[in-house]
Amino acid sequence: MSVSAEESTYGVGASTLIVRSQPDIQSNAIGYIKRNTVVTVSEKRFGWAKIDYNGQTGWVASQFLYPTNKTATESPTQNVQSDQKVTVNASGVRIRKGPGVNYAIRGFANSGDVFSIVNQQGQWVQVRLNGGGTGWIAGWLVSSSANNQPTGQQSLKGYSIVLDAGHGGFDPGATAYNGLYEKTLTIQMAQAVAEQLREAGATVVMTRSDDSYVTLANRVSVSGSYPADAFVSIHYNASPILSTSGITTYYYDDSSQGLAQDIQQELAQQTGLPSDGVRFGDYYVLRNNPEKAILMELGFISNPNDLALIQTAQYRSNVANAVTQGLMNYFGK
Ligand SMILES: [Zn+2]
Predict the structure, then answer these.
(1) For position 139, which CATH number holds?
(2) Residues with CB under 5 A from ligand 1 (ion)
(3) Tens digits of residue pLDDT in 66-99
């Protein structure tokens, strides 16, 4: 591997730094990185720094980077000289091109297959494939020979989860500062979460799967007509104060408070948005629900910074990971 002299590493100084496709504030946000992540910068231009972002070229505002004293070859994500191996513990496991269910499938692995770990990100492990190249596998579908890294040892096999994408049809929910509707964002997110939960072994029922109007009573009765273990409602917040930001998880019945806490804790760790904690919420779908029920407000679409994150595939993937892990933590107790 040759590393050019100009390449150097920096730490991220902002709590959440948006990665854009071009060195231009108007260009698309392709993802984001969290505080103290180390990035390798290959070029600087007019206040922007060019970085490698999951194999893609991305640009970040260089004012939020601080120099580290390492050279690129010492970056922790490169040259992982690890003998650590993982064993696949399920059949038909998808190997993906990146660390999340939104990435394309590049192959399959079966129970007992062994791979060397190249890298790790969140709940996902990057492994060296036998035919050359690498791929990513969800951490809960593998077990590790050393120190139980990654952590995911459980699955959601046997659990049924009702996913409720808020609003729909003639009920748009909140309107984002750029005109986007909450109902559109909630269904996109519900689909990402559903896919992740199914990969973790859960049975997933959705209260709506397209842009249709479903009454609150019917949403709850979906929950009542299946032997579901949890009801998870997905919403986004809005405020006239544009700087208001963050994620809150609500519960109504005391018996749902623990589930709300386990999911909120993972959202706080994995999404990069501030945590506004767990709160009591007197919402119809919680109050009348026969199951353990929570409602997530996954950021403020009135806040331009929250909205830029919310619209990325990485955010959906991170929330999907957080909800899956939160449910595993809760049911694993
Ligand atoms: Zn809503």
Answers:
(1) 2.30.30.40
(2) 166, 173, 235
(3) 877 544 343 344 334 456 788 887 777 889 888 8
